[in-house]
Amino acid sequence: MKKHTILAVDDDRTNLQIIRSVLEKDYALQLAISGEMALKFIERNRPDLILLDLMMPGMDGRETMAKLRQIPGCETVPVVFLTANQETAEEIQCLNMGASDFINKPIIPGILELRLRRILELDDLQHHLQTAVEEKTRQYQELALESIFAIVNIIEAKDEITEGHSVRVAGYSRALATAMGYDEKSVDEVYRAGLLHDVGKTGIPDLILKKEGKLTREEYGEIKEHTSIGGHILAAIETMDYLAEGAKYHHERYDGTGYPNGLAGEDIPEIGRIIAVADVFDALVSKRHYKEAMDVETAKAELLKGAGSQFDPAIVKIFIELMENGTIEEIRQASGAGH
Ligand SMILES: [Fe+2]
User: What structural domains and CATH numbers belong to the chain?
Assistant: First the structure.
C-alpha cells in the first residue's frame, strides 16, 4: 500500500526532528518551518494529514489552517494541532475550526504515532464509504432509468405508430423544466414522468387504440381511462411518485374541462401541465391512425390558441420560445421525428 503523506509544520527545528524520527519510517514526510512554507507545499502536493504547530511567528497555526482550507482538494484534509498551551479554551477553538485532534508538546513519540494512525484510518474509512455510496447511488439511478426504458418498450410494442412519442415528449418536457428553472433533480423527474406518461395505454384494448376512423363516445371514454390506469400502474413505484402524477394528469385542461379529475389552473400538478403541452405538440406534428401530421407552424398556432384554455399559458409561452430558438426541433430530430 502507498504510504500516507504527512506534512509537519513547526517553527522549532528540534520538534521537527523528533517528528521526523517518529514518523519517517511509516510515512512519506514533508517538513515546513512556517505557515507560508507549508501553504506553498500544499499548493503542489496534497498531503493526507497536516500536523500544524499552533504558535508560530508570522502566520500562526490557525491562520495557516484557515488559508489551507481555501485550497481546492484541501477542504477536508485532517489537521492535527501541536500545542504547548494546555488551556481548554484554545483546544475547543481548534476543534471548532474543524481540527481532527491536538497533541500537546512536548511530543511523546508513542502518542503521536498512535493518534495519527487512528486519524488516518478513520479518514481512509470515510473516503471509502463515500466512494461506495456514490457508486451505489449511480448504480441505482442507472437501474431506475433502465427499468423505465423497459416500460417504454412495452408501451411502444403495444402501438407501433406512436414509436418515439414517449422519448420525444420526455425530451420536450425536460427542455421545458430546464427553461422554467427547475433544479437538476427535478428536471430529471419531469423527464422520467414524460417517458411513462402514456403507460396506461397498455391497459386499453387494441381494437380501440388502433381503430381507424371515428371513435364512438364509449370508445373515447375508454381511451380516456389511460390516465387513471397509468396513475394506478405507476403508483406501485412509490419512491418516484411524480411518475404517477405525470401519467394521471397530462390530459387535464387549464380551464377545468379535462380528465380524469377536471382539475383547473394551478390545481393541476405542474408536471401534468408541462407534459400536456409537450404531448399535444408531438401528437399534432405526428401522423396517427386517424390523421396526417401537421406542419410545425400550424402546430405552434394551435398551442397558442389553447393557451389559457387547454394549456397553462406560461408554459406555452416557454414552449414557443424553445421552438423559436431551435431547441424543440433539435430534440425532435435527435429522438426520431414523428411520422
Ligand atoms: Fe396521453
Answer: 5-131 (3.40.50.2300), 159-334 (1.10.3210.10)
